[in-house]
Amino acid sequence: MRSAWGALLLVTMEGLAAEPPLRFSIADSWAMPVVQIERGRPTQGILHDMLASLATQVGRPAEFHVLARARVQAAMDHKEIDIRCYAAKSWLANQPGDYLWSVPLFVQRDLLVAREHLPITPKDLSPQPIGTVLSYTYPSLQPLFDSHQLLRDDARNQEQVLQKLWAGRYRYAVSNQWTLDWFNQTLPADQQLHGVAVLQEQAVGCIIRNDPALPVQRVLRTLLRMKMSGEIDDLIGLYTGRRPTEDPSLSYETP
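Above: the chain's sequence. Below: its structure in token form.
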């Protein structure tokens, strides 16, 4: 009997091993709570946990590829990865190839952040450096960069930008709401950083190569189910301390 169960387990394991992995991109500029990267591998975070759950529900192993943000789309175009998440259509308006988008999964809210809690309009700032992430684009601030009213001070990732702001390297920086909330969790109330202006808000989701070798529709249906069931919002609440309210501007129609 024991040998029969052993043979069945071996067959099951061999069947799972035969399934090719879903290859996900992880941008090395991301920081917690989006993802934690240790020794070149993601270990935790909203995106890590979401993608690991997605792969499990689809029935494929998950394979993570940590890449420089500027290389992610080229890796997709060359079929080195299958799925890119935490992306917006406006970022990839002219991408070549055949891709399909998931439903919107998150709302990215970009903020101008400062140590003092004084609301401000970016165009009213005096000429000065501002904390940014290398290779990131900031459409609402680009005219100010072009005119040299504001000067980019690039760091490798979002966490480093906020660390430099907190240390007084500059007076203002750009951060998404999640990273700011995560960063402030470790600080006393009187030392926390503050959002002083909303720069932009946009829906982000996942894009998958439309390849017959991939379970494309199964991936898209699973992401829809994870969003509508509350699983994704629960992950956000777990890492940021607050579960987002549903945004009526996001459409959850079946792909």
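The first strand starts at residue 22 and ends at 27.
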